[in-house]
Specification:
By secondary structure, this protein is mainly α. It has helices at residues 3-30, 44-65, 73-91, 114-138, 140-155, 160-181.
């Protein structure tokens, strides 16, 4: 993938993110953002999420459109690596003008990670589906914890203590936000959790 194709892809992604953020903002106003008694209403979270999505999409889009005035060393390194891969592919053309079929990819090839990314995506979707099936049995909080633990261990390959800590903290944050702050009753399982 060339740097210009990557830039176009990011701009398209930013436009899609802008549309999603705008839809979230509109849906947030469709519900009540603040209740009569001053509490946060059901429209607050979609509104907040939509505003954040729009802000970050605008920042990234402006950055891409204006030629990356805020380039970081990492962005420059990625662009240089992409240009190097494109140059190596051009050199790999054989005498008849046919491009290398890609069967001899080396570890530095950007596209070599596509299969790994697809595998991770399928695993995450499968784990989410299992967590969804476990929610009526175990309850939302334990199913969410097990889902995060499975993803951090099986997909992200974190160490067990790190995975457990991430899963515990994220589950506590979800419990704190939805149950304690917003007062939402999450599904409970057969154990009453």
């Amino acid at each position: 993938m060339t740097p210009s194709a990557l830039r176009r892809g990011r701009l398209v992604f930013d436009l899609v993110a802008l549309a999603i953020g705008a839809a979230a903002i509109i849906s947030g106003f469709g519900y009540r953002v603040v209740l009569d008694n001053g509490q946060i209403g059901p429209g607050f979270m979609p509104l907040l999420a939509g505003v954040l999505i729009v802000v970050f999409a605008l920042i990234d889009g402006v950055r891409e459109y204006t030629g990356n005035p805020l380039d970081s060393p990492i962005d420059n390194q990625i662009d240089a690596e992409l240009e190097q891969v494109a140059a190596e592919r051009a050199e790999a053309m054989d005498a008849s003008g046919n491009a290398d079929d890609g069967s001899s990819r080396d570890e530095g090839d950007i596209s070599a990670g596509a299969t790994g990314a697809a595998r991770k995506f399928v695993l995450v979707v499968a784990v989410m589906f299992v967590a969804l099936l476990l929610t009526p049995v175990l309850g939302m909080i334990p199913a969410f914890f097990l889902m995060l633990l499975a993803i951090t261990l099986g997909v992200e390959r974190l160490k067990i203590l790190t995975a457990a800590l991430v899963s515990i903290l994220a589950t506590a944050a979800i419990y704190g936000i939805f149950v304690m702050l917003l007062g939402i009753r999450l599904p409970i399982g057969i154990f009453g959790i």
